[in-house]
Amino acid sequence: MQNYLSGFFVSFILHLGLVLSFANFFQIDNLYSLNKVEPMPAYLVFEKPQVITKKKNIKKVKELIQEEPIISPTVLETANAKAEIETVKVEKDLLLKQILGEEIKSSAEEISYYSNLIRDQVIINWKQPSSAKKGMSAEILITLVPTGEIVQVKLTKTSGNQAFDSSTLNAIQKVSKFEGLDMSRRLFDNNFRKFTLVFNPEN
Amino acid sequence: MIYRISALLLLIFSSLLTSGLRIEITEGIKDPIRIAIVPIVWNLENPPREYLHEIISSDLESFGEFESLSPKEMLSLPKTDKEIFYRDWKLLDVDYLVLGSALQGEVAGEVVVNFSLFNVTRERLMKRSISTGTTFYLNALAHVISDRIYNEINGLPGIFSTKISYINKNNSSDEKYFLRVADIDGRNDSNIFSSTEPLMSPDWSSDGRRLAYVSFEEGTSRIFIQEIYTGKRKSLKREKGINSSPNWSPSDRYLAAVLSKGGNPDIYRYDLEKDTWKQLTKHFGIDTEPDWSPDGKKIIFTSNRSGTPQIYEITISNGKIRRKTFEGTYNARARYTPDGRSFVFVHRRDELFHIAVQSLRTAKLQILTDTRLDESPTISPNGKVIIYATKEKEKDILAGISIDGQTRFILPTNSGGVREPNWSPLLVSTSN
Question: Rounded to whole angstroms, how far apart are CA atoms A179 and A190?
Answer without folding.
Answer: 19
